[in-house]
Amino acid sequence: MMNSPMIRAVDVHKRFGTVEVLKGVSLDVNKGEVIAVIGPSGSGKSTFLRCLIHLETIHRGSIEIEGEALVNTDAQGHCQYVPPPDISRVCRKMGMVFQHFNLFPHLTVLQNLIEAPMTVKGLRPDEITPKADTLLRKVGLFDKRDSYPSRLSGGQKQRVAIARALAMEPDIMLFDEPTSALDPELTGEVLSTMRELAEERMTMIVVTHEMAFAREVAGRVIFMDGGVVVEARPARELFAAPEHPRTRAFLVLRLFKSVKHFPAGFGIFRSCKKGLFSRYVQNHFIKVRKQASIWNFA
Ligand SMILES: Nc1ncnc2c1ncn2[C@@H]1O[C@H](COP(=O)(O)OP(=O)(O)O)[C@@H](O)[C@H]1O
Ligand SMILES: [Mg+2]
User: Fold this and answer.
1) 61, 95, 201, 202 — which has fewest CB within 10 A?
2) What spacing in Å lies between the alpha carbon of 46 and ligand 2's midpoint?
3) pLDDT(275) > 90
4) If you take atom 25 of ligand 1, which residue's CA is the nearest one?
């Protein structure tokens, strides 16, 4: 279908046990669009991406990729996925990059890139290696081709992970906080690789805490909180004048963390209703403390 969006998610619901973590998320992504997804920890950002590429199954709603159904829900609320071969075919249109790289430690950089094209697409090494070399040059890591991941820096690992996803020739790239596990001085190289992809008009959804990246590279920004999309607007609009109090509070907390963004944060802070704002901040910290104790970090 020519005019269908690259991704169409409608009213996606997802539960873990009895806890509903996605409470009806809808999103259309058009060809060449870059969408940044921001929001506090635990708001369902990763789960939503994982549902799109079928690393998680949804309980209600529908997902279409380039006009092809992945899952549908009928009027009786019966949620049904397409048959497994179709699931694989539809999901191959997407590549995903994770926070923790997920490279194969026992394979060299080159082998990491050619593994999936060989096993999934049945290509011979000589058929895929030239493409892999091109991608390694593109991300600036051709000289690391025969190294093992353990010899690379975090930024280099993440650039390999991006090249590996691209080796499958996806039409859409999903990024789940690709720079969150990196030392601050290494985020730049990964962000500039992503920026180049965006300039080449790759369709991308990027879950990120990098507010500058979201503002400058994304066309639209989605703010998620508590399993719903609270606000979805063009990036410049959302950062200049967030509408929802929760978006404002979140942005203030984020922007106050960096000296560079402090003035922008202060501008938004002044527009906040202070009662709502402090309630949000309190809730936010209570949530963070709860999570920390669950995971035994406290
Ligand atoms: N595999 C899982 N089992 C149970 N709960 C999960 C699982 N994955 C995520 N969750 C819960 O779902 C909620 C949303 O998580 P997540 O999508 O990772 O949020 P975000 O990426 O926005 O930080 C959180 O409360 C989290 O604890
Ligand atoms: Mg996450």
Assistant:
1) 201
2) 4
3) no
4) 42
Instruction: Look at residue 175 and give its three-state secondary structure.
Output: strand
Question: Which of these, 196, 216, 194, lies nearest to 205 by C-alpha position?
Answer: 194
> Residue 253 C-alpha to ligand 2 middle, in angstroms?
18
Helix (H) or strand (E) holding 266: helix 262-270
Mean pLDDT of the chain: 90
Gap from CA of 162 to ligand 1 centroid (Å): 23
Residue nearest to atom 24 of ligand 1 (CA): 42
Kindly provide the residue ranges of all beta strands, DSSP E only, lying in 32-108, ordered along the sequence: 34-38, 60-65, 68-73, 79-81, 94-97
**Pocket of ligand 1 from Cβ distances under 6 Å:** 16, 21, 39, 41-47
At 281 the three-state DSSP class reads: helix
pTM: 0.90
Three-state SS at 6: coil
Strands across the sheet containing 94-97: 94-97, 172-176, 203-207, 34-38, 220-225, 228-234
How far apart CA 73 and CA 187 sit, in angstroms, is: 40
- 165-200 pLDDT, tens digit per residue, is 999 999 999 999 999 999 888 999 999 999 999 999
- CB count within 10 Å of CB 14 equals 22
| Spatial contact of 257 and 71, defined as CB atoms under 8 Å apart | no
Substitution site in 21, 250, 296 for ligand 1 pocket (most atoms within 8 Å of beta carbon): 21
